[in-house]
Design brief:
single chain; 2 domains; 37% helix; 15% strand; globular
């Protein structure tokens, strides 16, 4: 399935199951420049990212891409990590910068 079709299917699924409006966009290019472009062109006021890094020991708690967004963005960033499997919620969310 093409990426834009996958995003539209995910958008529809979230809207139906969670009853919240969702808008998706697909960007070409690197992750960091795409996130920065999206925040600037869409009047974004909050960035939410995961905390599990996949590369390097120093990035085990906060991923390298998340660390880069934290250093480059002037927006507040909320970090989410997978919750303990015994908890009711799917994610633990914690504010990083307000």
């Amino acid at each position: 399935m093409h990426s834009s079709k996958q995003l539209k299917a995910l958008e529809k699924s979230i809207e139906e199951t969670e009853n919240v409006p969702v808008r998706t966009q697909l960007y070409d290019g690197g992750v960091i420049p795409s996130i920065m472009q999206a925040t600037e062109s869409n009047q974004i006021d909050l960035i939410v990212m995961g905390t599990l890094g996949r590369t390097g020991l120093r990035n085990k708690i906060v991923g390298s891409r998340t660390a880069e967004i934290l250093s480059e963005s002037e927006l507040p960033v909320f970090l989410g990590s997978p919750a303990d499997h015994r908890q009711q919620t799917k994610y633990n969310i914690e504010p990083v910068r307000m």
